[in-house]
Fold each of these.
Amino acid sequence: MEEIDKLLEDFKKRDRRALSRLITIIENNFYKIQKKFYLLLDGTQKSYIIGVTGAPGAGKSSLINLLISAFRKEGKSVGVIAVDPTSHRTGGAFLGDRIRMQSHALDKDVFIRSMGSREGKGGLSLSTPLAVRLLDAYGFDIIMVETVGIGQEDIEIFKLSDTGLLVVTPESGDDIQLIKAGNLEEADIIVINKADREGADRLYKEFKRELGNVKNSYGFSPIIVKVSTVKKEGISELIEAIDIHKRFMEDNRVFEKKRRERNLSLFYLLMDYTIRKTLREEGIILKDIESGNIDPFTGVKKAMNVICE
Amino acid sequence: MNRRLRVLIAKPGLDGHDRGAKVIARALRDAGMEVIYTGLHQTPEQIVETAIQEDVDVIGLSILSGAHIPLFKRVMDLLKEKGAEDILVFGGGVIPEDDIPVLESFGVKKIFTPGTSTREVIEYLEEYFKNGRN
């Protein structure tokens, strides 16, 4: 217990080791700090959160690397959460997103943390939004979150972020299909990476045609930007697009709406976590349902009693 | 139960051979660990700062350049400086037998020489952490 208090104290002094230790606790045993976590969140939700998704190999990490440089030039501090897939078989993970960002390793105003997706569906578990809150409380101006990029479920990232980027490449013809299917219509900016390659212009036109009149749930038409991370081209255009989106949200009171929704979604994740944990500790109800002693509906009634005790 | 070992596999110095590092990174992942891989040509400063940001339990350094003594020395010094000497450091690569006691005197816990099976490395780490972290 004292160890946790010391960590929280060090965190408030902006100790980086405390920050990274707390992320580990969030990932492994969040219940240890659950009751005190809110103490850290005073005055938070000040950071600007950028979510980055897209298929594996689309260049998400390289893009984030260049965005870090651009934001640092503006004097902004940057926190990054990079999620890579956890193997369902072994529970292990190869976290390699950092390779592309190592030039920022010694910058005191940049903090990069790799996370395994663990139990989270589509790459976003409770740990990711909690880690984002923590980086926010630490005081980063910009927070970027890179998802595992396995497709449909990644829509969660757009709910977590202020501006959501979908990274596609001329090689990935499937992305258009995804957009048409409506799974990724909530992207705020579509980044066509590897724009130095053949087919980029064709893809750009295709997106323009498909998305020209599409508006997302709060009336914003996604901006399409061509980037080449290899040639370091298009980054200032992308930064400008992020600014345009930000201004749109400010002008249309979307910020408040997004933040309310985010709070609600975190509430549900926390409820889910708390209920599961309480029931695991109680033990009997879960066992009874598994063995068929009681049906799931009776289980709910019993569980509600346990939780409300 | 939920605790998962986090391991940083890094290649300091100038040699460009990362096959061994990648083999060990994959093996540790397959053993259920979270492996952070940072690629080639990392400075000791980058390695230690990365280890802190990633809150790893273990740093594994692969060195084939012959510069293992100064590189390990610097990494161990920096870890002490940052109060992170609780992180276990092991090494692998072409390291002469005679140099191993020198590296151990810096606080390097274990050196795996060529021919070591990945199984041995995994067993060593599992044994070291069987009673929990730190």
Note: Chain B has one domain: 6-130.
Amino acid sequence: MSQPIAQTTTPVAGPHPTETRPYRQSLYEKSYLPLLGGMLVTIRHFFKNIFGLNKSYTIEYPEERRDYSHRFRGHHILTTRPDGSVRCVACFLCAQNCPAECIHIEAGEHPDVNIEKYPVVYEIDMLRCVFCGYCVDACPEEAIIMSNNYDMAYFTRDQSIVGKSDLMKPYTFDENLLGYRPSFPEEDVKRAQMRRGAFDLVAAAKQAQANGG
Amino acid sequence: MNKMFGESWVTTTFETLEDWAQRNSFWPFPFGTACCAIEFMGTVSSHYDVSRFGSEVVRFSPRQSDVLLVAGTINDKMAPVLKKIYDQMAEPRWVISMGACACSGGFYRSYHVMQGIDEIIPVDVYVPGCPPTPEGLIYGILQLKEKVVRDRKKLAARSAQGRPEKETTGAHAGSATA
Amino acid sequence: MPTLAPPPPETRVGYDLDAVRAKFPAGSITTQEGAPWPTWIVRREILVDLARELRDNPATRLDLFVDLFGVDYPDRAERFEVVYNLYSLPFHARLFLKVAVREDDAVVPSLVKIWKGVDWFERELYDMFGLHVEGHPHLRRILCHEGFQGHPLRKDYDAARRWILTEDKIYKPHFDLPDGEDDLFERMTINIGPSHPAMHGTFRLMAVLDGETIIASDIEIGYLHRCFEKMAETHNWQQVIPYTDRLNYCSAFINNVGYCKTVEKMLGVEAPPKAVWARTILSEFSRIMDHCVCNGTTLVDAGALTNFWYMFQIREEIYGLLESVCGARLTVSACRIGGLIQNLPPDFEARCRTLLTMIPPFIKDVEDLVDKNRIWLDRSVGIASITGAEAVNWGWTGPCLRASGVAYDVRKAYPYDLYDTVEWEVPVLYGGDVYDRYRIRMLEIRQSLSIIRQLLDRGMPEGPHIVDDPHVALPSKDACYNQMEAMIYHFKLIMDGIQVPAGEAYTMVEGANGELGFYAISDGTGKPYRLHCRPPCFPIFSTFPQLINGGSLSDSIVSLGGLNVIAGELER
């Protein structure tokens, strides 16, 4: 709120400075000469850029892309089994763990008796999603992971609710496009080989395509 | 122009030129309130350099800008301000809604946050992300560019069929055709 | 050269709470047992006298008003509890006061005459809980809009109940004109913002001008009130972390650390050494990032655009590091309760070292450009200056306070993580103006770089990145796929959330613009009963009218940048 100019200073306890000591300009600084020093900095950058001595910082998107790590939290992926079916078992953990409550799942009985359930509907409202990665943390099946893909834009709100078909689009064919997903840093070699059999997403996706899935 | 030359080679060429100029130099009005505004700063700074797409002329006056770039949470207190600024913009105008909060309220399903700016103003392009990366925003701008071209073509086709309509560009055309 | 003052003394010689207590009737003050910090439960009648005595008594000198918030307990006879958080800079001691009031008599006395910084906190109390603050000069809503009805942080308020603000209810400014200025005749009243670049998009300044001089001003905030505290009550403990990112979005990682430390304290777990090490390093990088954007925008406000590009370059490089750790550039959510989101990437140290060599040239370029530049000096030296004593009275913390000559830094006063194991100094300047606030941030960037360098030289500690406790942290996916037990824990943690035992905790970290504290209250269910964030820039920005009154309008623009007010944190 507003205070008048004439301040009534309350007495304040404590040995804190009661007056300010602002910076004093020296005669040299008053002479405007240091501006030349600043000028030199910009001139140096100018000539370095002109003659290509500086590396250019600009990323020429969309032709060139920034080198994001393999943890980037982008568009979601629903991973597939080698036969091309969705890996998700509709356990609702991702929907439960989502702070934005943007995941909508409807579960259905799976024809294969070994698999109990599968999602009939799996929708993510991309405009609600805050890309925190909590769904990936929650998934016990590695069925939902994230991709490196950030090229998203929608023209309507309806478009932004992406279903199974969009989420299962084959981002998984290229390992370089995978983003945030569970990491297995501590597992030993044997386990890793076992896991590769069960959870190699890229191979599974390729297999699924070969099967005509 | 139309009065002077009618529908002749001059006007069509001029219109093409106008279209070309318009879609290659969106001047944004950054209505930046929150985290997304920081990413917008990232987009205009040297790493992403949005001037490669003609959008570096950031105008803080609604009269001088083409695109209203809503970056950040809009709450109920801010809503009248946003509406007023949108109303002050000259046609043709477009709206890009950047980030989850502006698009839909994001994970703030709360007592003071608007559940998407489309409650009060029409939106042409929604860019998801919280906040979107600068690339995401540039992708959104490119999508808007395509949309403008598409809408113009539709409009031209319609008037060629002899059904001249009141020219509605930007958001209104967008909501009808998308 | 700036003077590098020693940190506040760690001693408490002469600190004596009983000396104050003896002056008040027995029974009016009770000590709360089992509280995380020294806490007194105080009767409302003596609050004002007690507060004055605590501030002025040479045995206590609790001169820094840190925080004030309310809690709603609908089941109790005395429904509302108001918590005051005080700190003594000379004695380095902290005291909490709690006052309970009944719903039918929901009045607390105002402390504005004792600490000026309490002003906005009391307005927030009124706004959020509907408590009337007696003696407050202009009690009105602060965060919610004028069309709002009800008080949202009461437990019986539905979190999603919205109200529409109509044009006629928009706040009309109120000016306290100085003596002799009885009306606004022949005065120009202008409104800047909220959507104005000089007001950083979210603040509204209304000023009465005499020529170009501001003679009275009024500010209005709340244009980015996103209900963080109510949202925290509707989500479980782990899910609050993404919300904390969006408090101070310029240095989101520090918020994560502050929140996670609070919950870890309540749970009684400690993050493993590797997580602590990484948290310290990334906090310092976040601090550099925040100072960069603050100084960059301040200089832009003064018209020096080039620095902004150089400063943002640093940010972009640090984004790369954060993204490789957690997958997001800005809103990182990189901490989990008990550790970090994932193990550190293999190239973490190499990336950090690259940054250490990359940042100093940019800093030097900026310093060469503006440090001795007379144009910048003329715009900033002596502008919006405030003395140390005044700043303390207003409740300032962080770089802005240190620019006024008071060396209070949470990292030294209450060392957390690894700050007490590295050598660094707290830079202090005495100008208290825009220039010294700019300088102090430049000096702090260098200190941060030094801290990071020392920690990197020490090497990354071995071990896990998150605590190995199935009640707190999700089991590794590896265990999850292979062991039934781990799978059950995984399901339980996600479905029920972390079960934090009933109790309270207050933990603070040094945020990029001051003491960032989280006061959490748990009732044993899976969600926070109350989570209050102590926003460092809230008291700082409440000083703004005083800083700019009497100066020219163009100076007010420059002074806003130097305060580093982040709307997400100011308004939560």
Note: The domain at 76-196 of chain A is CATH 3.30.70.3270 (Alpha-Beta Plaits).
